Amino acid sequence: MKLLLPLALALCPAVGACGQREPEHNMAPAASANAASEDADFAMRLVLIEGHLQAGRELIEAGQTQNSLPHFGHPVRELYSDMIPIIVHRNGQQFDRDLIALEGLAARENNSETFRTAFDAALAKVHAARDLIPAEKWASDEFVLALVADTANVASQEYRNALVGGRIDSLIEYHDARAFIFRLSDILAAHQGTDPRLAQASALVAELRASVEPLNPPNPPRASDVQFEEKAAALRALVGGTPAQ
């Protein structure tokens, strides 16, 4: 997964390679010049991790264990390290060890009861990390719209990386894009807001979801990378609009 996150510091390698050593968390929290930006970046990383985990579980349930494994490994290797100081600073519970263990279980046991139990426990910890962001942020239409736009931008990059010559060359990136859009669909469905832009965002996300609905996509896929990016750009444009008074 190759990301260029619009709100965050550049993604850096994870604390340690998966399976090589236990991560350490005794670091001082990073100074935050902008708490709002920190909340936005942390929220987006959570959404991306949730998307990865959902993709991994769906693939392993479909009997595609090898395709599922990157989605358990990528969250720790690509997303987690910049979250550690925030979790420390806000007295949250770290969950990288759970993700590392989950990847190993998926590889060894496939869709076993042990794997499913560990998956549910790891996902519960990811969900609990949402509480490290103030509740009023999650309730904010503006915050949710920005989260949707930024995550769709990442999904668009993944979709573009998945295609070569108009055909799917990388299922990993395709499933990344698919999972992130599915998470946005769930987030918008659950959010109770009044801003009319939310309905527009839901319609655009529904169109993006239709492009990546199949777990096993046709080739060429349902949408070109240009078509996918046009809808992601429309979501970004919504954030620049004026919210309802």
Characterise the protein shown here.
By secondary structure, the protein is mainly alpha-helical. The chain has a two-stranded antiparallel sheet. It has helices at 35-61, 65-79, 84-89, 96-109, 113-128, 135-139, 141-162, 171-190, 197-211, 225-239; strands spanning 163-164, 167-168. The longest helix is centred in the first third of the chain and has 27 residues, at 35-61. α1 packs across α7 and α1 (35-61) packs across α8. A hairpin with a 2-residue loop joins β1 and β2 (167-168). 63% of the residues lie in helices and 2% in strands. The N and C termini lie far apart (39 Å). The protein contains ten helices and two strands; from the N terminus they run αααααααββααα. The protein folds into two domains: 35-132, Four Helix Bundle (Hemerythrin (Met), subunit A); 140-239, Four Helix Bundle (Hemerythrin (Met), subunit A) (Up-down Bundle), CATH 1.20.120. The chain is globular, with a radius of gyration of 18 Å.
Q: Might you state the CATH topology name of the largest domain?
A: Four Helix Bundle (Hemerythrin (Met), subunit A)
Percent helix range = 55-70%
Total of helices: 10
The run of helices and strands is: HHHHHHHEEHHH
Query: What distance separates the N and C termini?
Result: 39 Å
Describe the main β-sheet briefly: 2 strands, antiparallel
